[in-house]
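Below is a filled-in request sheet from our internal design queue. Each sheet records the structural input a requester submitted and the sequence that came back. We keep these sheets so that new team members can see what a complete request looks like end to end.

REQUESTER: design group, bay 2
PRIORITY: normal
MODE: inverse folding
CHAIN LENGTH: 706
BACKBONE (tokenized):
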């Protein structure tokens, strides 16, 4: 069938022929079970806890009746049946997975031992004519996310105890504890709080509006692989502290849907309290002896510090993408001194968490604060990654250097009979136009310069309008959703056109080539000798060996002795229809080593017209013999601002990758990734770039040794 699909380069919707079950296959492919099944520690500890619970019921002279909520592949239900449970009921609301679970259970010869209910647990009816004939006395479930409660765990457990479980039941896991660590981290803060724009050694050029500075930020959790942040990027002010405890067992009564807890804590160091690092652990058994921890390496109970292994990439701890850690930001920084005692307040509603740090003891401070929400629009409109990019001093220093060189090359008068110099900025969510206007004031002296920024994202435009007002740039900067004619540029053609480039709809780095297309569409508004920034771009690729990321797409085959090939087949068949082979990933969070040298696939000159025909590049990724096997290809774009090697904005490695060494990646963009079957052989590649669709394909074939 035909489906409307957005073309990020052309900036418009297009018809595309797709499989009639495309939506179904995409949902299945992205259901995200694979990395959980590869989590051997999780699987083993669930298995141990299930075995102990069944055995305990039998020792009490009772039958073991198990309920598995959200069974997925049926793994936990099969564990229960294998451990001798007298009856097992498993519910799964996602229809494709419920069918898959039934096939897996049949394949493991457990069809007569497990009942599948294709419903949400809150829809199950207990009784003679219901879904379950009687209540269960053992509950096993995994309904947790990075925030622990974000998938509705509170209501799931409360409803189960009220409607589905016996009073003296055993629940796996039994309890959970949330930990908070208060830190000073300028790097983390830069993902949340826009800073003033300036250049090294110069005064502030562009400042954020007061309402943006005081805004509490985005309400959505900032989930992150904290271990990859590393201890060098933060100062621990208040050490990891247990702040909230959830009793899933039901022995403490109903779990509150809204709750606040205040804890007196003492600062271990002096600094600015800017954020909270959060993670949690699960007590799998009633005795609290089997612990499953999601802590970052520096606080993980199994971490053994090795002086020879200082890099976080080398920490040999369980890896999870389904349960990461999170960062929460305080509405404003709080100055603390070593030894000072303050109140850390942890809050939760039914689905989310937030934190407060209180120094005074006023009556108002004891009141529960509402969940913070963005009031300025910026945090709600831009991703954490984008805000971080706006704050990156090295990045904007390169922009300023290139802009300065371009401004020095502009003619001493305007591009027409008027003395106005017009500059056109083509980007979204960018402060580049404001920075250019401020630098032009100094470069041009009394000559009038008009910077027109086209920001076709209406929310983004509204935000930058407030920046223009705050910085009193209304006479020199105009932001339009669409530039249409010379009148929009002050009656003259543009002497310079520039961009970061960044566009809100872009998912992969090369999607920002929309700058090239848009510049071509507006060529009639440009002076024949108009300067361009960036002057061009290049697409690069490199063979890598991922430490853990491969698990999100790799076949599972067998888990804890149970065959799950039906799951592998389901995911693989849906991926081939519903997923692109090249997917965006923030590789700084996912360690990988270089196993080949980088290859330049394509080079683009923005002075030239956009090609009509497909571009093809062929070559070989030579997997070096002293490296580990290759299991992925990373792809990125370098933006050449002015033709010099100094002013290149790379969305790929920071510095030159070394064979066999971990790669440091740009933290402010997502790279393109293709995960492949591991190989030690050289890999022939054919890259094909279709400019009019900005579609990059990468065909791979391992060389057969002779």
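RETURNED SEQUENCE:
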């Amino acid at each position: 069938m035909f489906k409307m699909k957005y073309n990020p380069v052309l900036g418009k919707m297009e018809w595309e022929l797709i499989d009639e079950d495309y939506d179904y296959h995409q949902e299945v492919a992205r259901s995200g079970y694979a990395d959980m099944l590869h989590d051997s520690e999780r699987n083993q500890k669930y298995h141990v806890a299930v075995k102990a619970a069944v055995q305990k019921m039998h020792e009490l002279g009772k039958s073991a009746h198990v309920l598995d909520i959200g069974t997925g592949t049926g793994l936990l239900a099969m564990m229960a049946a294998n451990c001798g449970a007298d009856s097992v009921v498993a519910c799964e609301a996602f229809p494709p997975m419920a069918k898959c679970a039934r096939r897996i259970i049949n394949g493991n010869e457990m069809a007569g031992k497990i009942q599948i209910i294709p419903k949400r647990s809150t829809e199950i009816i207990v009784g003679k004519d219901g879904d379950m004939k009687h209540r269960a006395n053992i509950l096993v479930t995994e309904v947790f996310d990075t925030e622990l409660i974000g998938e509705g765990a509170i209501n799931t457990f409360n409803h189960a105890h009220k409607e589905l479980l016996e009073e003296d039941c055993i629940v796996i896991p039994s309890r959970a504890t949330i930990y908070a660590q208060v830190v000073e981290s300028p790097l983390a803060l830069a993902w949340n709080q826009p800073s003033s724009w300036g250049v090294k050694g110069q005064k502030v050029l562009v400042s954020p509006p007061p309402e943006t500075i005081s805004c509490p930020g985005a309400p959505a959790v900032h989930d992150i692989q904290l271990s990859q942040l590393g201890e060098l990027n933060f100062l621990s002010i208040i050490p990891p502290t247990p702040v909230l405890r959830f009793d899933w067992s039901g022995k403490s009564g109903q779990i509150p849907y809204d709750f606040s807890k205040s804890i007196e804590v003492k600062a271990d160091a002096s600094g600015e309290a800017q954020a909270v690092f959060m993670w949690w652990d699960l007590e799998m058994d009633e005795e609290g002896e089997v612990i499953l921890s999601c802590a970052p390496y520096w606080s993980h109970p199994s971490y053994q510090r090795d002086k020879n292994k200082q890099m976080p990439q080398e920490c040999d701890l369980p890896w999870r993408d389904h349960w990461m850690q999170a960062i929460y930001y305080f509405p404003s920084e709080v100055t603390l001194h070593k030894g000072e005692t303050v109140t850390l307040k942890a809050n939760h509603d039914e689905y989310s968490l937030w934190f407060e740090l209180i120094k005074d003891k006023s009556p108002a401070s004891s009141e529960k604060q509402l969940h913070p929400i963005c009031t300025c629009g910026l945090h709600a409109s831009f991703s954490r990654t984008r805000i971080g990019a706006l704050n990156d001093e090295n990045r904007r220093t390169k922009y300023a250097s290139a802009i300065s060189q371009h401004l020095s090359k502009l003619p001493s008068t305007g591009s027409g009979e008027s003395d106005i110099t017009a500059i056109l900025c083509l980007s979204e969510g960018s402060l580049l136009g404001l920075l250019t206007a401020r630098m032009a004031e100094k470069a041009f002296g009394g000559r009038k310069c008009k910077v027109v920024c086209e920001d076709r994202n209406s929310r983004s435009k509204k935000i930058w309008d407030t920046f223009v007002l705050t910085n009193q740039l209304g006479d020199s900067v105009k932001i339009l959703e669409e530039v249409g004619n010379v009148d929009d540029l002050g009656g003259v053609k543009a002497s310079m056109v520039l961009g970061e480039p960044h566009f809100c709809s872009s998912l992969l780095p090369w999607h920002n080539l929309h700058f090239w297309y848009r510049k071509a569409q507006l060529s009639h508004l440009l002076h024949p000798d108009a300067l361009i920034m960036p002057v061009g771009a290049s697409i690069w690729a490199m063979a890598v060996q991922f430490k853990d990321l491969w698990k999100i797409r790799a076949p599972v085959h067998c888990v804890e002795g149970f065959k799950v090939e039906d799951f592998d087949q389901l995911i693989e068949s849906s991926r081939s229809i519903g997923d692109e082979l090249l997917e965006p990933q923030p590789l700084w969070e996912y360690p990988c080593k270089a196993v080949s040298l980088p290859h330049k696939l394509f080079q683009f000159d923005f002075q030239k017209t956009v090609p009509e025909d497909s571009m093809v590049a062929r070559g070989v990724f030579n997997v070096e013999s002293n490296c580990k096997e290759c299991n992925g290809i990373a792809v990125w774009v370098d933006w050449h601002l002015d033709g010099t090697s100094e002013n290149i904005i790379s969305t790929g490695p920071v510095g030159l990758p070394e064979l066999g060494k971990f790669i440091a990646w740009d933290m402010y963009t997502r790279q393109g990734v293709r995960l492949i079957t591991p190989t030690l052989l050289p890999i022939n590649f054919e890259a094909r770039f279709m400019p009019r669709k900005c579609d990059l394909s990468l065909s791979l074939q391992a060389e057969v040794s002779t």
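SHEET NOTES:
- The chain has four domains: 34-172, 177-243+254-377, 392-526, 536-547+591-702.
- The mean pLDDT is 89.
FILED BY: M.R.
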